[in-house]
Amino acid sequence: MTALTLSTSGAATLRADALVVGIAKGLGGPVVAAGAEAVDKAFDGKLASVLETLGASGGEGDLTKLPAPSGLKTPLVVAVGLGPVPEKDETFAAEALRRAAGTAARALTGVKKAGFALPVESVEDAEAVAEGALLGAYNFTAYQDQNQADGKDAKKTGGKDAKLPLAEVVLLGAKPRDKAFKAAAERAVALAEEINRARDLVNTPPNDLYPESFAAVAQAAAKEHGLKIQILDEKALVKGNYGGILGVGAGSAHGPRLVRISYTHAKAEKSLAYVGKGITYDSGGISLKPAGHNETMKCDMAGAAAVFAAVVAVARLGLKVNVTGWLALAENMPSGTATRPGDVLRMYSGKTVEVLNTDAEGRLVLADALTRASEEHPDAIVDVATLTGAMMMALGSRTFGIMGNDESFRTAIHEIAEEVGEQSWPMPLPAELRKGMNSDTADIANMGERMGGGLVAGLFLQEFVGEDIAWAHLDIAGPAFHEAAPYGYTHKGGTGSSIRTLVKLAERTAAGDLG
User: Rounded distance, CA 245 to CA 304, Å?
Assistant: First the structure.
């Protein structure tokens, strides 16, 4: 993990391998942002004009590297775009700082130490820069031979260091001795480390990550951070009548698991339950996915990874709230023992479900976990799942949908997500879509109308939430796994979507800001 240091050094005196400064997009060209004054002075006040000559605009995602002039203690200056110059009396938004820092950190792969002299006018600014830099400084190289960089001579390509993330982020403009700044830095480190842990899980190939091995990772983390954990294996699931989880995992050589991992605080007055879909590989089962639609299905456990990471992060932050994570883990495979279209499953709740499509499996494992979580009567439940392609069709690849049984709770989560920089949108649960799941054989079918499929899935889940419990469903199918070019602090592959929202929700609940 990349180290984070708060420094009192000035930009001109910091000894580092690179120095990151910000530029904004002005009406007449790039404008040097606060924090870079000493660097601009080293360029004889011509940094903006030099950057413009090199094609820089200051727009978001813009990045220019240039050799440092004499007067600086670093050989390299990295100018990163912050977007439009803020209006008078306004500052750069936290997400603009977060993305700029992430863009710079991504460009500094293989570098040992970089100073970040971006505009920091508050504790919130410092935390945003730190968070963005730590999330940007990520590479998943566990399955790559770093001693042989693209088959070339390792010495010529940088060898092992060539693909390693930036080793140390030095944040300038913060106050190392100030308790608020120190707390912000500690929060950024804890959050980034857990998000990157979740990214690692999502990126791990399914031949190595399956329900049992995922549960083992959770068990190790629980031991490290003093969390309580209970793992239900196949025998325990059979004994407990968890028909949904067992039905989905029936076709795989890797048996399913239900993991309960919990954090408690002695002075907590509220409790939250987070439920995550953990399909470690989704072939579609007997309703097999076609070629072109199954190559990235290792990511179908991203909801469980998010819940797991959020619970650990809450524990590391010592929040005054009780949080329980439920990881519903299974591998959805076709075989002679697999659930068939037309089969009826008896769920943990006692309800029966006619399985019309085995590729609508996430809602089945979540249903059992939601019922079980409801038995503990938490103040609120949030489930997280890469649930439907329909939600991607509706909201695209960067925005997750939010549904729920309580409009004020749904709105609160939407506002929290926007605050922490996660794109989201509230979605309805139209009652008229429920009849499409009526079954002549069972209490309910796992499929309904094709149009509004993401909403139909939400309505199915709502059937398994306990009475008088506020509940929200986050469908992260779009943003959980990024397949396009990297941007900001977002890399290709697992993103850690919704973790920041879940942690902030816990913080708000601990502070009494949510009813």
Answer: 14
Alpha-helix runs per DSSP H in 108-242 = 123-136, 154-157, 179-203, 211-225, 234-240
Which H or E element spans position 385?
Answer: strand 380-385
Q: Are the beta carbons of 114 and 16 closer than 8 angstroms?
A: yes
Report the chain (515 residues): mean pLDDT per 10 consecutive residues: 94 97 96 96 97 97 96 97 93 97 98 98 97 97 70 43 89 94 97 98 98 98 98 98 98 98 98 98 97 93 98 98 98 98 98 98 98 98 98 97 98 98 98 98 97 97 98 98 98 98 98 86
SS3 105: helix
The catalytic position among 289, 320, 346, 398 is: 289
Instruction: Pull the structure tokens for residue 290.
Output: 């076609």
500 flagged as catalytic: no
Choose, from 106, 113, 257, 363, the residue flagged as catalytic. Answer: 363
For residue 152, indicate whether it is catalytic: no
Dihedral (CA of 246, 249, 253, 258) sign:
negative
Alpha helices in 298-401 (DSSP H): 302-317, 362-374, 389-395
53 to each of 19, 42, 47, how far by Cα in Å? 20, 17, 10
